[in-house]
Write a structure and sequence with these properties.
alpha+beta; two-stranded antiparallel ribbon; 38% helix
């Protein structure tokens, strides 16, 4: 299963720093609030975005 999360959702849920780390992005890059990131089920579980 794949989980999609936007930049603004990640910020709201407090996982933005982890998303940046997972995707090798720099915190100083420009991001659109609706920019989406696709997580694996394991990544989403680790970030506590879903429960099994």
């Amino acid at each position: 299963m794949k989980i999609m999360i936007s930049a603004s959702e990640a910020m709201e849920k407090g996982v933005w720093k982890e998303i940046l780390r997972l995707f090798g992005r720099d915190k100083d890059e420009e991001f659109w609030p609706k920019e989406e990131f696709i997580l694996t089920e394991e990544q989403a579980l680790a970030l506590k975005l879903i429960q099994k």
